[in-house]
Structures are given as structure tokens and as C-alpha cells.
Amino acid sequence: QRRTSLMLLFWRISSAFPSLSRVLTEAGAEEEHVELFTTPQTKMGAATSDFGYNLFRALASRDATANVFLAPISVSAVLTQLSMGDRSERAQSQLFRALRYHTLQDPQLHNTLKDLLTAVRAPGKGLSTAARVYLSRRLRLKQEFLTLVEQQYGIRPKAVLGKNTKDVNDWVAQQTDRKVQNFLAAAFPQNPGVNAVSAAYFKGKWVTRFGQSGTMETFQLDSGAPLRIPMMQQGNYPVKMGVDSELSCTIAQIQMQDDVSMFIFLPDDVTSNMTLLEESLTAEFVQDLSMTLLPAQVSLTLPVLRLSYSTDLLPLLSDLGLSEWLADTDLEKISTQPLKLTSVNHKVVMEMAPEGKQYPSATSAPSHLSYRVDRPFLYLIRDETSGALLFIGRVANPTGLTI
Ligand SMILES: *[C@@H]1O[C@H](CO)[C@@H](O)[C@H](O)[C@H]1NC(C)=O
Questions:
Q1: I need a labelling partner for 377 at 20 to 30 A (CA). Which of 6, 53, 160, 178 fits?
Q2: Which residue CA neighbors atom 1 of ligand 1 most closely?
Q3: Where would I find the Serpin domain in this sequence (predicted)?
Q4: CA of 123 to the centre of ligand 1 (A)
């Protein structure tokens, strides 16, 4: 019974929307190269997004069926601060390549990034981030480095005792409206080194409200029994939509306040293996996609999520081409003593709740299409002004996510 209604649903969506892959192939066949990112800020937005997609792929492929969440722009921020400690140009260009800055040719790179970070943290967008370099107190530090980073990014790298987690946790909580708590579950590694700290909290506000929320609905897991989880629901919901037949998923873009939007990639089948989709994610792909989606009114059903996720990203950096940079650390602008990167802790908290501004207009005819996010999905939060990726996640199993 359920399968039939799903198939009917997909038939309806597929017939109502052009196939994205077809549109994309036709555009590509003309071999016309359109410059998608033209201003320093949108180029920087694309660079931080591409770094983010690479990092997400690295993390997601470690466990192809687990929940994964990242706020990559905060990781870009802390690694860029760290790059100011590289002595040689060779080491710095390795790091810049991983951060995808090598194509920018931006002599004002640090200022452009600083402006982007300020723009995406505007209060209405719902994102707060923390990014700071913590150094072992046992190191003899060069004051010039600390001052340089502080002058550029307004955050002074800090020397701490490895076991002093409270200092770090208090600072992260304070930077994130007290939403990211207990950042470090354990002390920094014992050996004296550099710890790159990044964290983010996101709670966007929908432009269109959800009228119904908290009703328990079925969420079908890839394996195992269906779950009952709280969902929010609203009819006549304005979204932009499209079907990607090659990636076998239906995509919806939902507008949030202050020029932020959420893209949901919902696989046609119940599967938490989204490798194919993950492999196609780039800043350019998402930008192209956003221009192909078509406006629609749908009956929209989304899980209500309050999630918290933390991980040490250090083991992933070698997947991003940083093996040599890590092995042959050259952070002599930080200290003359040999220095290693010892942790890249990252923690995110996100709330996907019903708050919003206005109800959908009552005058429009009831929606025939429905978009029900009731099985594993992938989503991303993008700042539309700069194109910067603010948040990305794969929800395989919504239990065990709640804070
Ligand atoms: C996930 O899907 C890809 C291709 O779609 C496949 O190659 C891979 O083996 C799958 N991984 C798992 C863990 O099932």
C-alpha cells in the first residue's frame, strides 16, 4: 500500500518537473564555460564550499551509513588562521590548495575571508561559529604570530595547559550563544602541539511557517524497524524542486530568512548509502542545480531535529592532500620548537524546528504534490548571497541525534 502511494508520488513529481540531469547535460553539450563565481566574495564562498564538500566526503566515506554533520566554514576559518604560522611558501601553498584557495588569485585573501565570515554570521542568518588556534603552554610562542592572527581575525590564539578543558569549553560556549557545550569531552593530546578548534550552532528561521508540528510520524530506516519521530508539516508550502534521475533523488530548496536556504536531497529509495550523490557535490554543481529547480507548492513534511555531533577531523586531513604538510610541519612562525598539529576538534549543534514568520497564503489552491522527508536524506544549508556552504549533513538515523 505504502509503496504504491510512494510510486504515485514520484510519478507525479517526475512528470511535473524536468529531469535535472537532462537539462544539465544539454547545457554541458554546448561546451560553453560560464563563469559562475565572479566577485571576490562569491569566489571565496565557492572555495570554502569546495573544501567543505571534500571534507564531508572524507568523513562520510569513513562510515558510509552513519550520521555525519559539519559546519565547514568554521574549519576553513581555523585552518586559515593556522596557515599564518607557516614559515615557507611551499607549506602554505599546500594548505591553501587543500582549502581551495589556490584558484582565487586574491591578494586580499585574508580580508575577503574575514568579510565573508562576518557576513554569514549576521544575526538573522542563524549561524554562530567559533574558530581558534590553541597552543600548548609548554611551547615558547612567538608573540608576532599571536598578534598577526588577532589583528586579522579578531581572535588571539591561546596558550593552554593540555588538561584545561574548561577554558576551551567556556570560550566555545560563549561564542555560540551557549549552544555548543562540553566542546572537549577529553583533554587535548599530551604532546605539546597545536590544536585547531572549530564549532558552530545553526538554527535558521523558515520564511514560511509550519502549521503542524510534533506529530509522531514514521521514518523508515535503511535497515531495521521503522521509527516514530516528531515531524513538522505544512500544506501549500512554497519550495523550489527538481528530480535528478541520474542521482535518483528529488531535491527541494526551502527558503530561510536573511537569504539562507536549505537544500534537501531525498533519495528515491530507502537507503543511507548516498555515495553517488556525495561524489557529485561541488560549489558549481549546487549553483547549477539552484538555477534549474522550479517553484512549486507542496505539502511539506520534515523531521524536527535537534542534533549534536562532534569529531576530530585530524585523521581526514591526509585525504585532502595534507599528508606532507602534516608530516613535515613548518609552523616556525608560531614557535622555533618542533611543532605538530595534534587535534582538529569540531563540534556542531543544529536545530531544525518549526519557527518561522508567515503562513503560506490561503488563497492558493491546495497542493497536489507532497514532499515527505521520511527516510534517510542529505541536506545542506547555503548562504545565497555568497554561495557559501554553512552546514552539511547526512541523516541516516534520527535517533541518537537529539541533544
Ligand atoms: C554504496 O553505493 C556505491 C555505489 O552507489 C557502491 O559502490 C558501494 O559499494 C556502496 N557502499 C555500501 C557500503 O554499500
A1: 178
A2: 273
A3: 53-398
A4: 40
Q: What number of other Cβ atoms are within 10 A of residue 324's Cβ? A: 12
Pick the atom of ligand 1 nearest to 65's CA: 13
Same domain flag for 254 and 298: yes
Most ligand 1 atoms within 8 A of CB, residue of 273, 276, 277 to mutate? 273
Cα(275) to centroid of ligand 1, in Å? 6
* Residue range(s) defining the domain that contains residue 149: 69-203+307-350
Ligand 1 atom 5, closest CA:
276
Q: Ligand 1 center to residue 273 CA distance, Å?
A: 6
Indicate which atom in ligand 1 lies nearest the CA of residue 273.
1
Angle between helices 20-29 and 283-292 (to 10 degrees): 110
Mutate to test the pocket of ligand 1, among 275, 279, 378 (most ligand atoms within 8 A of CB): 275
Return d(Cα 373, Cα 249) in angstroms, integer: 12
Contact residues of ligand 1, CB 6 A cut-off: 64, 273, 275-276
pLDDT tens digit at each of 403 positions of the chain: 333 333 434 444 544 554 554 444 444 444 556 678 999 999 999 999 999 999 999 999 998 889 999 999 999 999 999 999 999 999 999 999 999 999 898 999 999 999 999 999 999 999 999 999 999 998 999 999 999 999 999 999 999 987 889 999 999 999 999 999 999 999 998 888 999 999 999 998 999 999 888 899 999 999 888 999 999 999 999 999 999 999 999 999 999 999 999 999 999 999 989 999 999 999 999 999 999 999 999 999 999 999 999 999 999 999 999 999 999 888 999 998 989 999 999 999 999 988 877 777 766 666 679 999 999 999 999 999 999 999 999 999 998 776 5
Together in a domain, 191 and 126: yes
Residues 318 and 287 in one domain: no
Residues 55/75, Cβ–Cβ less than 8 Å: yes
248 and 382 fall within a common domain: yes
263 and 384, same domain (yes or no): yes
Go through the chain and tell me how many residues it has: 403
CA–CA distance, 280 with 265 (Å, rounded to integer) = 12
